[in-house]
Amino acid sequence: MKQKIAVVGSINMDLVFKIPRMPLPGETLMGHSFHLVHGGKGANQAVAAARMGAAVSLVACVGDDANGQSCLHALQKDEINASHVRVIPDCATGVAGILLDDEGQNSIVLATGANALLDLADIDCADSTIAQAKLLLCQLETPLASVLHAMASAKQAKLKVVLNPAPAQKLSDQILAQVDYLVVNETEAALLSGLAVCDLATAQLAAAVLQQRGAGVVIVTLGAIGIWVAAPDQAYSLPAFKVEVVDTTAAGDTFVGSFAVAIAEGMDLCAACMFAQSAAALAVTKLGAQTSIPYRQAVEQQLQNK
């Protein structure tokens, strides 16, 4: 039986430029190619959760433009419930400009568009859907007030909350105390902990600070190094899968969405992290955001072959 997951977050159209290297200030650089890819952290994580086998509902906003219609169509293809995605008249759908170099690293510029208009009323309209879910998954590409309202609704319904605080911003101890699973990369861990994070040792220190501030389980993702996992009763590292990197754009989103499904299904923490690691590793081997997110069969096959 599919576990129900509610996602509150963003929907973007990604404009991906494949380039040999990052341009210098004032430089015009000839690129290799250009691609339009469906993205946005909320939508990406929703797609990852759906492809891992969950019944996913997304609460979000798009504009009444061609990008918005295209993004909605993509969600429908992944059988994601988009009945709580509000279409805003005379507004642009969120857009991300992504520069992707030959090493697979990226730089991203966001124009939030309709994502900035997700409000408390949108959350209230989805209240019963959130309450019926097993778990709530949030990020920070939409207004913080709306995210907090959704988290409060989830807590009232006794749901677990997974928060991926990206893009990074400062959060109070009171907010972190509402988070059962906090998934952060090096940048986010550093901003929230006040410590520089660059390896497993510094990730361990940062995770301890975030737990002291109120977060439950803290997972620090470190790219090719792997992850640091800090639970109330244990802490350990897990290595990354060794793969050929093509594009890291949706690796984090794939990890978070896959992790949420594993937790909702009752996997233990270590197994859930390995499941998410496998999914993220497969994602970096392909170009784009949602185009790179794997399906469960491939994730489980890679785990069996490890």
List keywords for this structure.
306 residues; alpha/beta; UDP-N-acetylmuramoyl-L-alanine:D-glutamate ligase; nine-stranded mixed beta sheet; 11 helices
Cα distance spanning the termini: 27 Å
Number of domains: 1
State the CATH architecture: 3-Layer(aba) Sandwich
Low-pLDDT residue spans: none
Q: Strand-and-helix sequence, N→C?
A: EEEHEHEEEHHEHEHEHHEEEHHH
Largest sheet strand order: 5-4-1-8-9-10-11-12-13
CATH level-3 fold name: UDP-N-acetylmuramoyl-L-alanine:D-glutamate ligase
Number of discrete helical segments: 11
What general outline do the C-alpha atoms trace? globular
Structural class per helix/strand content? alpha/beta
In short:
The chain is of the alpha/beta class.
